[in-house]
Amino acid sequence: MMDTASLRKQFPALSQKVYGKPLVYLDSAATTLKPQSVVDRMTRFYSFECSNVHRGAHFLSDQATGYFESARQTIKEFLNASSAEEIIFTKGTTESINLVVDSYGFNFLNDGDEIVLTELEHHANLVPWQNLALKKNLKLKFISVLPNGEIDLSQMDQVITSKTKLVSFSGCSNILGTFLPVEKIVQKAKSVGAITLLDAAQLVSQKKVDVQKLDIDFLAFSAHKLFGPYGFGVLYGKKALLEKMPPYQFGGSMISEVQFDSSTYNSLPYKFESGTPHIEGAIGTEAAIHFFSSLSLEKIYQHEQLLLKTATERLKTMPEIKILGEAAEKAPIISFNLQNVHHSDVGQILDQQGVAVRAGHHCTQPFLRKIGLTGTIRASFSVYNNLEDVDRLIEGVQKAKRMLL
Hints:
Blueprint: H1 4-8, E1 17-18, E2 21-22, E3 24-25, H2 36-49, H3 59-79, E4 87-90, H4 93-108, E5 114-118, H5 127-136, E6 139-143, H6 156-159, E7 164-170, H7 182-191, E8 195-199, H8 211-214, E9 218-222, E10 233-237, H9 239-244, E11 255-258, E12 263-265, H10 279-293, H11 297-316, E13 321-324, E14 333-338, H12 343-352, E15 355-356, E16 358-360, H13 365-370, E17 376-380, H14 387-404
Parallel strand pairs: 3-15, 5-6, 5-7, 7-8, 8-9
Antiparallel strand pairs: 1-2, 4-10, 9-10, 11-12, 13-14, 14-17, 16-17
Helix pairs in contact: 2-10, 3-10, 4-5, 11-14, 12-14
């Protein structure tokens, strides 16, 4: 079992009280809390190492450049990419997906081509493709979701066809916690020659992701969901694809040579990294990966599954509670509603008890609309949660039930 007590001490946020009650943080699917090691590493950069990278002719710049590129190498190893050139630094999962849409989609998809998504996608992996489809006369198709929250694999042969040119999907649903069958989807996409993009925003904190083993073409994730800083993300792309894609944004750093009437562009990965980068974001992300990698992934999984199982079973003892999605394999995410009560009202009562949950549509409005809902209460667990947090969640829901029913 995990030593949760000592782990919790590494997260300063958990030492505080909210409305006079010890904080119970159950919103890790939105963003994880930050360990002191990440805070300290970023503070050290700003305090003593602050300098721009790649272009300075002095010690601090050389030092910062070394730390910045060390982070790229660490992320390359974390994903098992074949080269650090395949690791592009972005603002987050959303920008990573938009980069692929703009640089690959606009240039290599044509009138009548089909893009396949699932009904569980976050808006970040839906709206950019919608925009592309409207502008280029492409067709969006969706793999539907079964009542238990799993995708309907029986549909794949009908949805993914010879007309499919790109399949973009989440590895783990942010609303239901469902682990999607990544290998099967990639295999089917490859069988028709389609390019694949994996939204790994929720997945990277749950399972080992090996981009070479998965044979995925693109992968996106955000540091802030992996105990790292905000505003920093990663796009992994196969080198052969990235090399033929034009730049996403233009300006400094992404150039090789500039003249008044023309420019040539830098090599990978810098071709896609215009302007002054999020240096402390890269350094903080490396610290977050070191923190995460110091833990046993197997123990993390066992611990979080225990919390998920316990919370699910206890919520089920209340007939007024409806849980959405109970896939056979899911992350420690529970979306639920209290019968005939608005999700925001329950979330507010939980907040007054010091229990932080998410209440809303979780950027999955099309899926919720399909099942007749406008939102849910979502409790999501991480390494720093314990069974006492489950107790506090249940007590808060019971209080909401007494007050609202």
